[in-house]
Amino acid sequence: MPKKLCNIFCGFIYIANKEKLGLGTNLRKLRSKTKYSQLDISDLLGIDRNTYANWENEKNDVKSEFIPKLAKIFNVEIKVLFEEKINSVRSTLK
Questions:
Q1: Can you say how many angstroms the Cα of residue 46 is from the centroid of all Cα atoms in its chain?
Q2: CA distances from 24 to 2, 30, 51, 83 (A)
Q3: Cα–Cα distance for residue pair 90/6, rounded to 1 Å
Q4: Which pLDDT band holds residue 67 (cuts at 50, 70, 90)?
Q5: Where are the alpha helices (DSSP H) in the chain?
Q6: Distance between CA atoms of 50 and 38, rounded to whole angstroms?
Q7: pLDDT of 11-60, one tens digit each?
Q8: CATH class in words for 3-82
Q9: CA torsion sign, 6 to 16 to 50 to 73?
């Protein structure tokens, strides 16, 4: 991963942790606006469903390598994953 890109992700993660923006809550909200289950999303990411469920429940932190993948799945910019309010989501998943 290019250093500049890593710095961007690290910045977002730092902001999220500092301000407690609730990435897991946002993942749940984004997923609920699609027809996908936790299993569907975990399969798209190539991880165990329990791992994804723990992210949504904020029991575990999302590894930075999955942040851009999650943004792509939900068809949002990375910063949307960390926003306090999620108003609209355009998902290209079918």
A1: 14
A2: 26, 10, 12, 11
A3: 26
A4: very high
A5: 3-19, 23-32, 38-45, 49-56, 67-73
A6: 9
A7: 444 444 444 458 999 999 999 999 899 999 999 999 999 999 999 999 99
A8: mainly alpha
A9: negative
